[in-house]
Amino acid sequence: MNKALGIALVAAGIVLIVFGINASDSVGPDFSRFFTGSPTNKAVWLLTGGIVSLVAGGIIAMRPAR
Description:
Blueprint (H helix, E strand, L loop, with lengths): L1 H23 L2 H10 L4 H22 L4
Helix pairs in contact: 1-3
């Protein structure tokens, strides 16, 4: 059960990272980056959530079963 949860978190993390990369490369964030020097909050939160989910899922999936 825990391995399935870990694999699901890894998959969700990959999807969030892909969406975050796509959100940071679109036209809107280019304007935001031009004026503020940083990407939009949406892109940052998607990338952060994806990385956290990927790491947590990897840890859960790699733990040995009891």
